Every structure is written in structure tokens, then in C-alpha cells.
Amino acid sequence: SEKPTALIMIFGATGDLAKRKLFPSLYRLYKRGKLSERYAVIGVARRELTNDAFQESVRSSVQDAIKDHDGLDEFISHFYYHSHDVTDSSSYLALKTMANQLDENYHLEGNRIFYLAMAPEFFGTIAEHLKSDGLTDVAGFKRLVIEKPFGRSLASAKVLNDQLRQAFSEDEVYRIDHYLGKEMVQNIEVIRFANAIFEPLWNNRYISNIQVTSSEVLGVEERGRYYEKSGALRDMVQNHMLQMVALLAMEPPIRLNTDEIRAEKVKVFRAMKPLEGDAVKENFVRGQYGRGLVNNEEVKGYREEPMVDAESNTETYVAGKLTIDNFRWAGVPFYIRTGKKMAAKSTKIVIQFKDIPMNLYYQTEKTLNPNLLVIHIQPEEGITLYLNAQKTGEHMDATPVKLNFSNNCIDHMNTPEAYERLLYDCMRGDATNFAHWDEVALSWSFVDKISEIWEGTKADNFPNYEANTMGPKEADELLERDGFFWWPVD
Ligand code: NAD
């Protein structure tokens, strides 16, 4: 396999993301032999730290995440630290000297990855300085990896993008959507395009509706300050939920390469019917959690959480009905829902097939269950196909049976592995599983119309769902109106 060589510069190296995801992921790549011996990492953050102290923090983050950690001494010996306030112009030259030195010592061929794991308000400044102070003048490749959120509206995303694009071309910008690094999200493509039994049915003649759920049991925890300005629509729908919809709805690409796949995804966003005025209310539901019982103990409502306004209008839950206006999907609703403090932690896709033309198994007065294909994304990873078959010993009776394929995973291993895959892709220069600007722009313009209305009108029914439930009743009504219901996620 390819073993990319690069200098990886992590901005925000003392932060939560670096600790929980980036260091353990790099270590896993190292352990699997996917990292060449020629790599070096510069951690950049404001705090004063020696190289040794930084290496120890990398060590403990790996130890916290991974049980078996041999070779750790060698692994962390490639880590260096630069204390640096990203708003201080004079500091970039020292960083450049350090980078050039490591480039030489480790024979890194002038390949550089700049990973921005810090607050987005700094992204623009950093990119500008990287260019103006010559850190991007390299003989090899230069790539910029940036975390969500990518703006908070189309307008702010444009401003950010223009700043980045002064220093990096679109090809060099890797916008992380960590859902795209998940095993089973990547599997959507394989399930669809590598099986004769699904793709021929993957359209409005055979599918009645598609449901995408991403529910969390956690509340806003310590992130109230950020979340108040974001909400579930921006935090989850604009990126992760719409990305999953695009993968489910896209046409088969001519080839499985970055440009072809992204081009097909972009077409889905373009076919998504924009919602305006009353259509927002008819097709989208917002929710906010109130108090509720978890293990017989009352837990706080969102408005009582730290750093949250006591009359907050921020949604912690969104359910919506998407319409994709093209030949394949006309008439097939795509329902999405996501929220915090829900009854189950689950990311799941349910594809519900249409009923067969006539039920021959009416003797027992049972309606036949529809065929379902369920893609389990997390915490379980796998697929389940629901069929009807005759039960042993019973005559001519159709009963639901489940065909199960399980990737059997442990949840805490899950997310770092998404980062591991994405980091590796970035090192190899494969941008397929990162969001292209066109996708980001189109999904913001869809979401902006909804957030403008939600921000302009106070939700007078907030809080409208109890903690530890599956969301407000309006979300159930959204499907009931169409004759459907949310399939249970657990
Ligand atoms: P954090 O607050 O834990 O860490 C921020 C880092 O930035 C620290 O290392 C800090 O020293 C550094 N920093 C802050 N101001 C600086 C300055 N002026 N100069 C130099 N360094 C400075 O944040 P985090 O949770 O690690 O998140 C980082 C980014 O990743 C954010 O954009 C966040 O939205 C995104 N993100 C985080 C997670 C997560 O799980 N933590 C998940 C998805 C996206």
C-alpha cells in the first residue's frame, strides 16, 4: 500500500479534537503501517509547552484511546511543538523555520498538511499567513484540512472560502465531514452499486420512502455557548444529514473517482426542492428538549443547561421532509431527523420498499410488512434486510424475517476510525470523502431558507419534547400525513 510522506501541522494541538481523535488516528495509521517512517507532526497552540511535554500529552491521548500501544515511543518521537498565537504575525516565520528543518531532517519531500483543529474564526487569518509568510511555498503538495462548521450561512461560508482560496486551490482544501469517514456511510455506495438486487429497485417505482435518523442521547453538555449560535439545523443537517441523503439519492457515477462522485452528489443538491415561506412549516419541524426522566431521575431541559439562554429559541431537534425533483425520486419523500437528548443513540437509514401489488396472505387478516433495507451506521455497523417468509410448521403464512449482516463494532472505536480513514485519504490526496465547495454552498442555500424563518419567529411551543424521547409529536405527524411512520431505531 501507499505510504505517504508528509509534515502534518496541527493548529489547535492542545484541544479536544486533537486529543480525542487526531493523535489516536495517526497512531492507528502508524500501527497499521500506513504511515511512512518519514513523517513529522508539529503541534501548534497558544500554550507554552516543551517538545517533551507535548509528546507526553500525545502519549496519554493514545493510551486513553487504545489499549494495545506498543511502538509508542518511536511514534511520539516524531512530534514537535510550536507555541504560537495564530493572530500574531511574527510567530509564523519561526514556524516556517521549524517546518523547513523537519522537512530536511525527515526527507519529507516538501509535502505539507495543515490541519486546522481550532475555532473557525481563525481559519481565514491562518490561511492568509501560511501563504504570505511562505509556509505554503513547498516543493511537494500542500493541503488544508478544515473542521466544521464551514460558516453558519451561505454568505459567511463564502467569505471563509474566499479567504482560504487565496492560499489554497479547491483541490487542496479538504473539508472534513466525519460522517463521510464512517464505514457504513462509505458502504452506501457499495451496497447500491455492487449489488444486482438493489440498484434496479432504487427508484420511485419500488421505494416508498427513505428515513435517515441520527439521534443522540447526550444533551448539549459543555458546548452551550457554541450550540446557542448553531442549533441542530446547522450543526447536523447542513452537513452530515444532507451528505447521507446525497449518497443515497445520487445517480451511479461513471467511475468511482473523486470528480465523478462529487459531480453526482452536486446534482442531488441541485434537485432538492428549496423550501420557502409556508413550505418550511409544512415540511420541517423544530424541537427543543425539556426536562425528562433518565433512569428515573429528572434531567435538565436545554434552557437550564450552562451558557444557554433561559428563553432560548435554539432548536436541539430537527425533522424534515425533503423532495428530490428528478426522474428517479419524484414522489419519494426523504425524511430526516436528528436531535439531542433522545431516547436512543443511533444513526440509521431505513429504505422502505413499496407494497407488493396484491396481498395473497390475507387469511390471517394480517397486513404484510413492507420490505425494508436498514443501514446501521452507528453504534452498530451493518445492514438488515426485512423479508417475509413462511414460518416453520405454519401453513401458507407470511411472517417477517430478518437477514442480518453485522460489522460488530465497539462504539468508542468508531469515530476515531472515521478520522483515521480521512487522514489517510488526505495524505494520499483522495478528496472523495470530503465536502466540495459546490456541495457546501448548495446545502447552505437550502438550509438558510429554513433558518431565516426559524430565527425570525420565536418557537412558542419550546420546549416541545421531553428528554429521553424520540422528539416532538409534530415529527410523527409529518410522516402520518403521508401515511407513514418512523421505523423504530432500536
Ligand atoms: P478546543 O477548544 O478544545 O481547542 C482549541 C485549540 O485551539 C487549543 O489547542 C487552543 O490552544 C488553540 N487555540 C485557541 N486560540 C488560539 C490562538 N489564538 N492561537 C493558537 N492556538 C489557539 O476545540 P476543539 O474541540 O478541539 O475543536 C477544534 C475545531 O474542531 C473547532 O472548529 C470545532 O468546531 C471542530 N470540531 C471539534 C470536534 C470535537 O469533537 N471536539 C468535532 C467536530 C468538529
Which features would summarize this protein structure in a list?
single chain; 36% helix; alpha/beta; 490 residues; binds nicotinamide-adenine-dinucleotide; 21% strand; 13 helices; six-stranded parallel beta sheet; eight-stranded mixed beta sheet
Structure description:
The strands form three sheets. Strands 8-11-12-7-13-14-15-16 form an eight-stranded mixed sheet, with helices on both faces. The chain has a six-stranded parallel sheet with strand order 3-2-1-4-5-6. The protein contains 13 helices and 17 strands. Helix content is 36%, strand content 21%. By secondary structure, it is an alpha/beta fold. It has helices spanning 16-31, 51-65, 72-76, 91-105, 123-132, 154-165, 183-193, 224-249, 258-271, 278-283, 411-428, 437-456, 473-480; strands spanning 6-11, 39-45, 79-83, 112-116, 142-146, 173-175, 207-215, 284-287, 289-294, 297-299, 317-322, 334-339, 346-353, 372-378, 382-390, 398-406, 465-467. The structure holds nicotinamide-adenine-dinucleotide (NAD). Substrate binds at residues 178, 182, 216, 235, 340, 345. Residues 9-187 form the Glucose-6-phosphate dehydrogenase NAD-binding domain. It holds the Pfam family G6PD_N. Catalyzes the oxidation of glucose 6-phosphate to 6-phosphogluconolactone. Residues 190-487 form the Glucose-6-phosphate dehydrogenase C-terminal domain.
Spell out the blueprint of helices and strands.
Layout: E1 6-11, H1 16-31, E2 39-45, H2 51-65, H3 72-76, E3 79-83, H4 91-105, E4 112-116, H5 123-132, E5 142-146, H6 154-165, E6 173-175, H7 183-193, E7 207-215, H8 224-249, H9 258-271, H10 278-283, E8 284-287, E9 289-294, E10 297-299, E11 317-322, E12 334-339, E13 346-353, E14 372-378, E15 382-390, E16 398-406, H11 411-428, H12 437-456, E17 465-467, H13 473-480
Parallel strand pairs: 1-2, 1-4, 2-3, 4-5, 5-6, 7-12, 9-17
Antiparallel strand pairs: 7-13, 8-11, 9-10, 11-12, 13-14, 14-15, 15-16
Helix pairs in contact: 1-2, 1-11, 5-6, 6-12, 8-9, 8-12, 9-12
The site of nicotinamide-adenine-dinucleotide has 20 residues, from helix 1.
